[in-house]
Amino acid sequence: MTEQSPALDNLLTESRTFPPSEAFAAKANATADSYAEANEDREAFWARQAERLHWDTKWSQVLDWSDAPFAKWFVGGKLNVAYNCVDRHVEAGHGDQVAIHWVGEPGDTRDITYAELQREVSRAANGLISLGVTARDRVAIQLQMIPEAIIAMLACARIGAMHSVVFGGFSPSALRQRVDDAQAKIVITSDGQYRRGKAAPMKANVDEALAGAESVEKVLVVRRTGEDDVPWNNGRDLWWHELVEAQSDQHTPEAFDSEHPLYILYTSGTTGKPKGILHTSGGYLTQAAYTHHAVFDHKPGEDVYWCTADIGWVTGHSYIVYGPLANRVTQVVYEGTPNTPHEGRHWEIIQTYKVSLYYTAPTLIRTFMKWGADIPAKYDLSSLRVLGSVGEPINPEAWMWYREHIGGNRCPIVDTWWQTETGSIMISPLPGVTHTKPGSAQRPLPGISAKVVDDAGNEVGKGGGGYLVLDKPWPGMLRGIWGDDERYRETYWSRFSEQGYYFAGDGAKYDADGDVWLLGRVDDVMNVSGHRISTTEVESALVSHPTVAEAAVVGATDPTTGQGIVAFVILRGDVAEDQARGDAAIQELRNHVSKEIGPIAKPRQIMVVPELPKTRSGKIMRRLLRDVAENREIGDVTTLADSSVMDLISSGLKSGSDE
Ligand code: WTA
């Protein structure tokens, strides 16, 4: 009777497997031996991968785990991350190779070669230096998918400054929170952005965010939409093009320590305050580059790669910027939405640029399914070789559709599990090696160790389920939470402290073959269209509205977005219920959340209720609310302080829906 069980049943009986073709396997970057080689000597394996990069000084020790859970990889080694992503390819004679085929939403395009990228990044680095930015300073970047976003990130890396990229769709207060937490000195943004064919202002939001932000010295503004009346703060604001174009295109990169901080990226946790995930240089770049090479079978100079993520998320950091560029990729970067100006936009881009490696998210695949297979059928997708998926579990139906209608039943699909915290892909099939299985991420990559364990931390057997843990340190792992070592230990290392396991927050199970299936979050983090949003964050936003006394938020299964946000609110005593239950009032609450956090956090549904189900210790029982939100029979209510509450909620909802 439950809505969730069909997926589980399906998963338990999934027996289809797809072996690689012989032709693919013969030329694959990955080999079956790499698992055994890595198992034999994990550190030697990662050292071999690190050697794919250029080091100014070689490391003296591969891993120092003596201060666990704070890892040091390639200790004593020195490198420049931007040099590895740009200059070394130019020096090796590939300056004319296109690094980025950029496609703007309105249809404008720009091809950037590695030689040009080197000049642009050098200019931007010189520009930042002229503003007094030095190593370890924080630079916040809120930009849409334009080349300047990538150039700005690489310019920071080049001078050892840390970037903190904030997704373009985040609200002014979300931006402000991140700027304050990181004490950002510079903010880089644009005048406006194109969204579904229209120009929307961006700078005005940034101004609102930064009012009174004391750490911020300068705001750099990229001109994109060319608005006439961009609000301007003389003395603080500078046009990117005016600053950068005046700089020399020569800049000598300095080598930084392998553990020099590279960036902070904020992600939702189980409390309201986002966590600044800290990544460093040598180990991170090693794993990003190795995984991009092995998981996508990327061949420099031959493949055209396209990762559809936004640089505001970790996928954009590791699989648009660092991994691919370190591997001398030629890639598509697309500014816009998938249905602007028409629903075949992605397929048209693949056809035009002969994209061979395509990496996207299940929520988008399900959207494409909804739009219909006849749309991709109109385009020539024969250039495609490997298809990737990331961000949430991919249901077998979507996997099969992706394989058939996009991959022509010929492309291996790599379902890649990882997190902002892991920095790079951890669990995934290897194309050319793995016999893939619809819906399963299958097994940890060579050099990576993961387990499914029960409550007590014991590994479960085949067919068993529990929590996903990572039981050995890995090069790309987070080095902590910015400014909060205690929260780092508490969030990730306290759940299985006895065993010393990293707790990922995901449920998982082994099938009969021992392959791993990811089952979604086990904490209060929702996954909406592959975006992590915490229930508490949305609850705080709701209770900040004057009409709301209390709020509880759950993620309910949604056929397209994976989960949808459903909120239950208790109104303040002086607000007349029927009035507040009206459509306009509900709409106002939804908009309020969108304004507080960003449109991605807007609840799908808000229900006004007289009470919330709580345990005797006052904890909200979200499980029961999820039953209501998913239209299921309500589960066990015996631990409720007042077991009649659920009746009250259900009857209240009935009268609510009678209106
Ligand atoms: C989920 C995105 C199942 C998971 C790279 C994880 C997945 C969270 C998969 C991290 C996958 C990501 N299968 N679940 N292939 N990939 N997830 O930090 O719940 O934005 O913990 O990183 O997304 O989200 P984040």
Question: Topology, pairings included?
Answer:
Blueprint: H1 5-13, H2 22-27, H3 33-40, H4 42-50, E1 61-64, E2 72-75, E3 78-79, H5 81-94, E4 98-103, E5 109-113, H6 114-130, E6 138-141, H7 147-159, E7 162-165, H8 172-182, E8 186-190, E9 192-195, E10 198-201, H9 203-210, E11 218-222, E12 237-239, H10 240-245, E13 256-257, E14 261-267, E15 275-280, H11 282-295, E16 305-307, H12 314-326, E17 331-334, H13 345-353, E18 357-360, H14 362-371, H15 374-377, E19 386-390, H16 396-406, E20 413-416, E21 450-453, E22 465-470, H17 485-493, E23 502-510, E24 516-521, E25 525-528, E26 531-534, H18 535-543, E27 548-558, E28 562-571, H19 577-581, H20 583-596, E29 605-608, H21 622-629, H22 645-658
Parallel strand pairs: 4-17, 6-7, 6-8, 7-14, 8-11, 11-12, 16-17, 16-18, 18-19, 19-20, 28-29
Antiparallel strand pairs: 1-2, 3-13, 4-5, 9-10, 14-15, 21-22, 22-23, 23-24, 25-26, 27-28
EC number: 6.2.1.1
Cofactor: Mg(2+)
Family: Belongs to the ATP-dependent AMP-binding enzyme family.
Explain the overall architecture.
This protein folds into two domains: 22-507, ANL, N-terminal domain (Rossmann fold, 3-Layer(aba) Sandwich), CATH 3.40.50; 529-655, GMP Synthetase, Chain A, domain 3 (2-Layer Sandwich). The relative contact order is 0.10. It contains 22 helices and 29 strands. By secondary structure, it is an alpha/beta fold. α5 runs antiparallel to α6, α6 (114-130) crosses α7 (147-159) and α8 (172-182) crosses α9. Residues 1-12 and 654-659 have low confidence and may be disordered. The protein has a seven-stranded mixed β-sheet, sandwiched between helices. The structure holds 5'-O-[(S)-ethoxy(hydroxy)phosphoryl]adenosine.
